[in-house]
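Forum: Protein Structure Q&A
Topic: Joint prediction for protein chains with partners

I've read a bunch of threads here and the consensus seems to be that you should model interacting components together rather than docking separate models afterwards. I'd like to see that in practice. Below is the full input, 305 residues plus whatever partners are listed. Could one of the regulars post the assembled result?
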Amino acid sequence: MLPLDAGSGTEETETSTARKVSVRLNDTDIANAIVHAIRDVPGVLDMGQGLFAKAATYGPGKHIAGIALQHPAPGELAVEVHVVLDERFLNKALADVSSSSDTVPILLRFTDQVRAAVSQTLEHLGLPVPLMIDVTIDDIR
Amino acid sequence: MAETRAGDTASTTQAGQNSQRGLAQSPSSSVVVNQATATKGKTTIANGVVAKIVGIAAREIDGVKDVVGSGAGATITGLATRVTRGDTRAQGVSVEVGEREAAAGINIIVNYGLSIPLVAEAVRRNIIDRVEAMTGLTMIAVDIAVNDLYFPEDETEVEHPRVQ
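Posted by a regular:
Agreed with the consensus. Here's the joint model:
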């Protein structure tokens, strides 16, 4: 499921079961895995392009749009996600909200799901989950 | 096998000499990498080799249009090299190579519309990864200067011929 290759990388992960084996991951590989997970979140139509400057993770020969990974300090990860929301999903959620007693706003619930997808993927890869994951809804289509 | 172990040597000797962060600038333009185990011959890596790796690594990143020299002198040199079909891969790159460490400076042109800090960080990472993997040297600094922006629309402009 995860498009990972153990090439020359930036992030080292160690699992407790096999401490001698360290997997090295490129930023673009991590970004790719996260994008795969985000696309499965209901309501996500596409990855966004960023509002003012193109948000992407750049690597040799390719870039992964809609997600910006940064390393504020060694071993730390900051994640910024840009998504496009599906209009049909929003309409359906708006229709449902009048009948349910859920008080959490639709968009916040949606962004929380995106955030959960990001942290699950990072956990799955054995990477530290950042405290802040910025999610931006760039557009509704 | 002595030459293939250059990387091992660089990393093991570095552990003991971590306190010496400064670059031990060698007088010659090439550097002996595996001096510690130079029992069966030595491996030398020329400055130009590191410079080329740095130049290629920077160009690999999506969003980097080109690597260019800065200033009038570099412009003329670049033009001359291009006309004579010389190797432009190391142009716009300056390197300092020590015995175990290296530092590089690079001038790049970035595509318009991208986040320059993100692109620069990707360039820095790729340069460090490539140089360390290929030469066994430790990169202590990569200075990036964004000298110009490139507008992709400029190239798609169609020139209308005067004669139909």
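Chain B touches chain A at residues 57, 60-63, 113-116, 118-119, 121-123, 125-126, 129-130, 133 (CB under 8 Å).
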